[in-house]
């Protein structure tokens, strides 16, 4: 079973990522029809998105259109979000304010 990161570990992990570059690289790969490498949203990404959005599990689940239990299972790595949910989670990581305002 995967160990959940501490808040400090999560912040250190987040500081090393360039989400914008990762998204642009993914778009370039898709356009080049070279999307061999698949990026899987981990429970860390789901938790990171929710933390950046400053939402409770209940609030975040409602915005994503899923139950709180489903969100919990994503955060714990038991289940993986659908493609649409994955895209929305990535947007929350990049600009949570924009997404929250757009969905309100």
Could you please describe the fold and organization of this structure?
The protein has a single domain (7-103), classed as 434 Repressor (Amino-terminal Domain), CATH 1.10.260.40. The N and C termini lie far apart (36 Å). The chain contains 7 helices and no strands. By secondary structure, the protein is mostly helical. It has helices at residues 7-15, 19-31, 43-53, 57-64, 68-75, 83-94, 96-103.
Summary keywords:
transcription, Helix-turn-helix domain-containing protein, 7 helices, 104 residues, 434 Repressor (Amino-terminal Domain), Lambda_DNA-bd_dom_sf, 66% helix, mainly alpha, Cro/C1-type_HTH
Give the topology.
Layout: H1 7-15, H2 19-31, H3 43-53, H4 57-64, H5 68-75, H6 83-94, H7 96-103
Helix pairs in contact: 3-5, 3-6, 4-5, 6-7
Morphology call? globular
Strand content: under 5%
Question: In the residues, how many domains can be counted?
Answer: 1
The CATH level-2 architecture is identified as Orthogonal Bundle
The CATH homologous superfamily is named lambda repressor-like DNA-binding domains
Concise summary:
The protein is mainly alpha-helical and 104 residues long.
